Amino acid sequence: MTDTTPTGFASLGLPFSILRTLEELGYEAPSPIQAESIPPLLEGKDVLGMAQTGTGKTAAFALPLLSRTQADFNSPQVLCLAPTRELAQQVAEAIRTYSKYIPGIGVTAIYGGADYGSQLRELKRGPQWVVGTPGRVMDHLRRGTLNLADIKAVVLDEADEMLRMGFIDDVNWILEHTPRTRQVALFSATMPREIQRVAETHLKDPVEVKIQTKTTTNDKIRQRYWFVAGAHKNDALLRIAETEEFDAMMVFVRTKQATEEVADFMQANGFKCSPLNGDIPQALREKAVEKLKAGQLDIIVATDVAARGLDVERISHVINYDIPQDTESYVHRIGRTGRAGRNGEAIVFVRGREKRMLRDIEKATRQAIEEMPLPTAKMVNEKRRERFQAQILDAIHPERNNQYREMIETILSQNPVDALDVAAALAALLQGEKSLFINEQTDARMADARERELRNESRGERPSRDRDSRGDSRERGPRSKALPDERPKPLKGHPEVEMTRYMVGIGYDDGLKPGNLVGAVANEADLDSDYIGHIEIFDNFAVVDLPEGMPAPTMGKLRKARVCGRPLEIKVYKESEVPQGGAGAPRRAPRRAEGQRDGFAKKPARAKPRDNGAPAPGTRAPRKRREA
């Protein structure tokens, strides 16, 4: 007798319309988080899931909740909160894909840094799914442009990340504006006390799902790290690529924009390099992978999402340009090398505050990761010399170059010049205006910066946190009436970066916290939080130190960015332009000047702004506190 018991996704009770999509996508069997989460979510139960990134959480909540969505009811029924706009976009796109054969399903993504107009138009159409970041969701709720009255389910994706970014109070506020009868699915890689408190407050008898991930690595992969100090990551990547003997290299970054920027930099320095991200059409992504396999590309710069399923035996080196957010992602990344019994190399760039994640990776993989010295300028220059000489020797073809030989003979016969001088001139023409060698004095500057950072770390010079892990202040600043100095403070860890002090038109009375300001600047300016300096918050304004020469378009975006329901209206700080009533003492202890605090998610390094920035906007009139 033939066994007709459903298997795979069909055994979980999903409808045919979803199963059809999964078959087309090539999904054969559910991952552990999917197998344990889908049945209770289909039954309408709350779920508290603990699993690392990359385990299939999006499908774990999207598939069952799509099955319960009413396509003929044009009102938001599912709200998904995500910590970053990148994740919000990714989740929204996944839901659109999964709902391919469910006619009438609308999905809208709302997040900071995007035009309100287009979001308003999409919300007016009555989408069944809304995916957004907490800040922008709050803005739409306060404006009355988002109605949660018909919400049937709320998803909190990467809840611990929202906690680290200072959004947990916003999440609680949003949940309080949803119907009491709604279903809640909370997913988190870790379960700190604050996340447990959210679960206890907002989830009803949840089904707990905990997935133990396998984190073992190939012993044929040599793992090293470089301690980032005193140099841009691009410079370090270039030095490694020029001195390491590699067949093909894969570089992992956190954002789509970083894939483009790093790839452009490596291309400009002579490497055949291509970006790989979710915005690149599938056909072009496949073409890039085929070129890598065929040896027509040296390097691919990719995000984790875009690199899923990529298997190229040529990859000898994996560079973690941005350290991953969890150990599982690290294992997945470096698994792209050391294939088919070959040896592989894995290098991770680590900033001072990221050493904890490095230790977590070592503990999870049960392998020590050795520190590597950055190749010196002398080593790089020697490699460049060898390659340039080889390039000249390879170009020596007497028959093919006969016409040029005749021209050189004419030059030598008609001009009193040495043949070596002519050859040197031709070599200079070949190289162009860009110097062949890098300045060896950069080694000394990098060593000095490294020593400073290591000394600070060994002395424990970690500026105190100005808030506890709930995102609220617990330490008060001095109750002086003195205003901030117009001169910015030096940026710890990057003293070479010139800073400018800016003022924003919101403060403590508006509910501003350091985490809100860091998140807004990091997202809207696409700026590594290492380069966000000193922050001080007063009653109705705040000051923040940013790199000198912020580009005018970036400043335009920052002025329009909304935090705590109000535009930042950022401008160069001048004591004479402080709003009335702004002379009160800071209501939050000054934020440390070294980038972000411990616990905040950071964005990948960006090139330092190059122009002189936009002129400061006009002085703002005194304003009253706006009530939420």
TrEMBL record:
Q: Where is this motif: Q motif?
A: 7-35
GO MF: ATP binding; hydrolase activity; RNA helicase activity; RNA strand annealing activity
By which gene is this protein encoded? deaD
- Using the record's annotation, list all stretches that form the DEAD-box RNA helicase Q domain: 7-35
Quick check: keyword Cytoplasm in the entry? yes
**Where is each Helicase ATP-binding domain found?**
38-209
Question: Would you identify the family this protein belongs to, as annotated?
Answer: Belongs to the DEAD box helicase family. DeaD/CsdA subfamily.
Q: What is this protein called?
A: ATP-dependent RNA helicase DeaD
Q: Which domain of life is it from?
A: Bacteria
The reaction(s) annotated as catalysed by this protein in its Swiss-Prot or TrEMBL entry are: ATP + H2O = ADP + phosphate + H(+)
Entry GO CC? cytosol; ribosome
For region Disordered, the annotated ranges are 448-497, 575-628
